[in-house]
Amino acid sequence: MNLYEHHISTQYAQQMIKVTNMVREDVAKSGVKEGIAVVFSPHTTAGFTINENADPDVVHDMLLGFEEVFPTKAEFYQHAEGNSHAHMKTTMTGPAQTLILHDGEILFGIWQDLYFCEYDGPRNRTFFVKIIEG
Predict the structure, then answer these.
(1) Domains, the chain, ranges and CATH?
(2) Is the pTM of the predicted complex or chain greater than 0.90?
(3) By CB neighbour count within 10 A (0-12 exposed, 13-18 middle, 19+ buried), where does 52 fall?
């Protein structure tokens, strides 16, 4: 079965962690050369995005931009847990990404990596990778 489970501990309230190499290891273990890998977060306040890997300012700017649109502290939120901003940010990035596998490798653009996006940390998180041959 080509289902892999990962556990990560986030250290900050909001952060983006590169997880590309974790998924690459899963692809190698699976032996699948052609197909897709679906990466899924079972959390409503954390998700995934594919974005630039060369300049760390991009991650900083993305988190800053998300905070501008969905501020952590807003007097109009009604959700009792106080993390409505995290739910909205997760909706923007999404709980999953689908990656194309070709010749046993993830197809990425030269500047791309896969990021786990934490919006309500720090927390212990789990995510899954399902690799499908085809």
Answers:
(1) 3-133 (2.60.120.460)
(2) yes
(3) middle
